[in-house]
């Protein structure tokens, strides 16, 4: 089962996205801010991280840079999530090391497609039904 770490400070967003992905066959873990996201990434070594960019004191771009700077975690795929759809936000997330970018509210079929590219055969069969 593919393990997804969702780093998101909004409890409603965490709950909604987590439930939607669990129904698609993913194992979900959560972190509420940048520092706990870094610690959870190191402890869990998830298959993919969904990183909110607007986290507060340490934003998602900085958390991403710190995760990827650790040689043990340097290859973890991170997809940025943000309510901001400005091209500059996308560019900043990609420059920080995120492999892709998704706006909120999340378009689940589009996000699942991006996750499938990253996960390949680890993608749960239920996640491949984008309908």
UniProtKB/TrEMBL annotation:
The modification 4-aspartylphosphate is found at residue 52. Keywords: Phosphoprotein, Two-component regulatory system. Residues 3-119 form the Response regulatory domain. It holds the Pfam family Response_reg. InterPro entries: CheY-like_superfamily (IPR011006), Sig_transdc_resp-reg_receiver (IPR001789). This is Response regulator. It comes from Devosia oryziradicis. The lineage of its organism: Bacteria, Pseudomonadati, Pseudomonadota, Alphaproteobacteria, Hyphomicrobiales.
């Amino acid at each position: 089962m593919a393990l997804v770490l969702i780093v998101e400070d909004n409890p409603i967003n965490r709950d909604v996205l987590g439930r939607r992905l669990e129904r698609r066959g993913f194992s979900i873990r959560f972190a509420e801010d940048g520092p706990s996201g870094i610690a959870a990434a190191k402890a869990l070594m998830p298959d993919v991280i969904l990183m909110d960019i607007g986290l507060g004191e340490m934003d998602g771009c900085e958390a991403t840079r710190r995760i990827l700077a650790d040689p043990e975690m340097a290859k973890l795929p991170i997809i940025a999530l943000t309510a901001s759809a400005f091209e500059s936000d996308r560019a900043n997330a990609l420059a920080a090391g995120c492999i892709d970018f998704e706006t909120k509210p999340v378009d689940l079929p589009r996000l699942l497609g991006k996750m499938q590219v990253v996960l390949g055969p680890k993608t749960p069969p239920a996640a491949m039904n984008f309908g």
